[in-house]
Amino acid sequence: MRDKIKKKLNELRENSLFRVMPEISEGAGKYISVEINKGFGKTEVRKYINMASNNYLGLSEIQEIKRASADAVLELGTTSGASRIVTGNYNLYDELERVTAEFKQTEASLVFNSGYAANVAVFSALADRNTAVFSDKLNHASIIDGILLSGAKHIRYRHNDIDDLAALLEKHKDEKDKIIATDTIFSMDGDVCRLRAIVELAEAYGAMTIVDEAHASGIFGRGRGYAHEAGLEKRVDIHMGTFSKAFGSFGAYVAADRDIIDYLRNKGRSFIYSTSLPPAVVAANLAALKYVKNHHDIGYRLLDAADDIRRQLQVMGFDTGDSVTQIIPVILGTNERVLMAKEFLMEKGIYVGAIRPPTVPVNTARLRMTVRLDVLDETERILDAFRTLKAAGI
């Protein structure tokens, strides 16, 4: 077994796929601090403009949100102490779920420890070997893992290909229980799903629709998500979203009708068998949610800025795929090239993610740039760095 592990690790290194943790001292804010090894036992801490974090609205630095989190620690301590169904529940949790359901305009909601835990619970609880789940090929790994754990028939349709989805639904039309699952914003491409067509097919074939709004929550639809932006929120059965991205905190929610939420509370293993979130996190989630409700225009400001940056990158000759959101891929192709580009941009003071297979398909390695509301005053510096990258021919 150890020889097998060593062989696999060597293969990762040879293919520029070996991953290590960056020496980051602070990584959520406007600037990211990274410890650089200078050799001979010497290190240097450098500061970069943070274009890699999912803290899209910069809410982690909003004083009223930080104060709410700190107050909860002082009042309730640092841990919940148990799972929700034992003693890990408290009033802040109940308020967060009530406010979340009101915000999402659903009957009820349930808070989970992470988006991964939420998707694993949803699919493993609702689907079984008699269920057919139709899933976009670029859906997040948590959706895929939830489907696999459920034992359901996992039927993947080509990314955003409605004709392929329709053909597969027709082929499997006799399946009694059917689910269509999709991200609304795809995390590595920054494009959006064809939700109206998906909903119409789901209704025609009697399928349940589940959407993952992780990268749309807080931004689209006055912060409510892409389904609300498209005016389809009442035609979607289950909405999942996170507090760990635009809301600047941690954890996730599922919003749906009361029966579905009651069922997940009783059958969602990742919910039942996890210690609940600590008071500091729940209070931050609640404060962030209220902040977005009161500042619902900030998502549109972010999208307008991202649109301007994307158009300028395209003018330079960069391939940004089908992005129409705050996530902008710069597709370079090979693993080696994308790693070189990342290092080049770091020399210019810009930190972006270098995304390689298996996260993205082979030969589509890319820089993943996430536009953030709190870095817009640095836009020209960012664009100048990309102009220099293009001129360098990397």
TrEMBL record:
Q: What is its EC number?
A: 2.3.1.47
Single GO biological process annotation from the record? biotin biosynthetic process
MF annotations from Gene Ontology: 8-amino-7-oxononanoate synthase activity; pyridoxal phosphate binding
The UniProt keyword set, sorted, is: Biotin biosynthesis, Pyridoxal phosphate, Transferase
**Superkingdom of the source?**
Bacteria
User: Which catalytic reaction applies to this protein?
Assistant: 6-carboxyhexanoyl-[ACP] + L-alanine + H(+) = (8S)-8-amino-7-oxononanoate + holo-[ACP] + CO2
Alphabetical list of InterPro entries matching this protein: Aminotrans_II_pyridoxalP_BS, Aminotransferase_I/II_large, AON_synthase_class-II, PyrdxlP-dep_Trfase, PyrdxlP-dep_Trfase_major, PyrdxlP-dep_Trfase_small
The UniProt entry, under PANTHER family, shows: 8-AMINO-7-OXONONANOATE SYNTHASE (PTHR13693:SF100), CLASS II AMINOTRANSFERASE/8-AMINO-7-OXONONANOATE SYNTHASE (PTHR13693)
Q: Quaternary structure per UniProt?
A: Homodimer.
Family recorded in the similarity comment: Belongs to the class-II pyridoxal-phosphate-dependent aminotransferase family. BioF subfamily.
Protein name (record): 8-amino-7-oxononanoate synthase
Upper classification of the source organism reads: Bacteria, Pseudomonadati, Deferribacterota, Deferribacteres, Deferribacterales
